[in-house]
Amino acid sequence: MSRWFRQLAAEIGLDAVRTDDLELCLNELLANVLNYAYADEAYADERARPDDKIREIRIVAEGGAGDLRVSVEDDGRPFDPQAKPSPEPPGSLDRAGIGGWGLPIVRALASELVYERRGDWNRVTIRTLPTVSLPGSRFNNL
Amino acid sequence: MELTYEDSAEGIRHIRLAGRMDVEGTHEIDLKFTSVASCQKLLVLVDMSLVEFLSSLGLGTLVRSAKAQMSRTGMLVLYSPTPAVARVLQATQIDQIVPVYYDLGEARRALVPGDVRPV
Hints:
The complex is a heterodimer of chains A (142) and B (119).
Chain A: H1 2-12, H2 16-37, H3 42-47, E1 58-62, E2 69-74, H4 102-109, E3 112-118, E4 121-127
Antiparallel strand pairs in A: 1-2, 2-4, 3-4
Chain B: E1 2-7, E2 12-21, H1 23-38, E3 43-54, H2 56-71, E4 75-79, H3 83-91, E5 100-101, H4 104-111
């Protein structure tokens, strides 16, 4: 997936920062789908015929370098990433969690995050605009 | 994903990571990284200059060892992350709780305050 996306980004002339950001966001969203979207279906899958176990996850890119939108679609259980509250910044190493960084990364790097439920499908669309400045950091000019 | 390390005379463990800390890459080095960075009290400098990509999973690996060192009264610092990796550290504000340095001398002095050796 990363190789496909980087090739697409090069073809349309997407800048390096947005290429990195979107590639990472896509990886995180895809990991979320693989880890959670079908997590409740283990029992059902055991009883299903082999063909029934095939799932389709779609990654769709729309627009161009000026306004690229990419979507991850899956037919797993409904999951709205926007409905999940944003965790507080850890503030100290003591309070920092080891996991659960995926969605905070997507929220921080994407200019826009849209969730839709279409029939049996989840669709999460992200978009980045040029030069996303991240608040409260010394790395804003990267 | 590659991991090498060496212990310097001033008592700092230099860990060099290279490659992509995506799901696959992180799984490749996670056990070894935890073993060399967490299992005893250490002063750890993690050279991130050859890490091209840092996923949330890879971030968790770094945070776990930083927390382990804090609990052992050791310390872990990150050195020279690439711009893509620095953006992840910034986005999660991990850069505010795990020290990040771009100057090797500064990183060493953070770990060993009296260290004035030439870099």
